[in-house]
Amino acid sequence: MQILVEIPDYKPATGFEFTWVDGFEIEVDLCHDGVMIKCNKAGLISLATQLLTLAQDDFGNGYDLHLDKYAALEDNSIDLIIVKKED
User: Fold this and answer.
1) What's the Cα-to-Cα distance from 74 to each of 3, 33, 46, 62, 68, rounded to whole Å?
2) pTM for this prediction
């Protein structure tokens, strides 16, 4: 299977540009073994797109994505913060 995604270029004036697939669902929960991220197919592709966007060299060390129930996650989710660190 091959999935093609378009990764938006970094633009200093606008910063990070989120790209979501129609119908995406992403839920983040704390369980007894750790953090559980549950996604439908569109959610998995959308999350992968955000991670690939953050992986661009133009996003420096310490840049972060903050996803919460107000921005991308399902209502019963805990916040998800992804921080880019140096290699």
Assistant:
1) 24, 21, 14, 26, 8
2) 0.89
